[in-house]
Amino acid sequence: MFAFLYEGEVVVATQELRFDDQDTKILSFEGLADLVESTRADGIVIIAEGWLAIPTQREEELNTIFFPARDRLDRMEGITVYAATRDGRQAELLSMIERGTDGQVSCGEPVEVTFPMGANTLVPIRRKWDDMEKRGI
User: At 74, is the secondary structure helix, strand, or coil?
Assistant: First the structure.
């Protein structure tokens, strides 16, 4: 996973993020939020590969997820690019990855994501921007 921090249209920092579990992932995004503050970034773009799964009927009924996509047998793989700005704008594109029987990898056409998958990972950054605003930074 890679993050690009922007001030206006200028890249002010890049950061590679690696994690083996959810706890490390959360800590990584907290650290990224600190980098947002130290660079005074007002925008972020993240490129990530991840697992995806369609919620089961029961999960939809209960509005919950029983098993994360990474633990499901019917999981799919995709590359997502998502962006957010300090003024509240956000966007996300997803390209599904397909693997052929010969090991060939191909990516589908990018599609706009209407339910942002990256929204939870951006919580520390949005919280940091709110805190910076309160402190006049």
Answer: coil
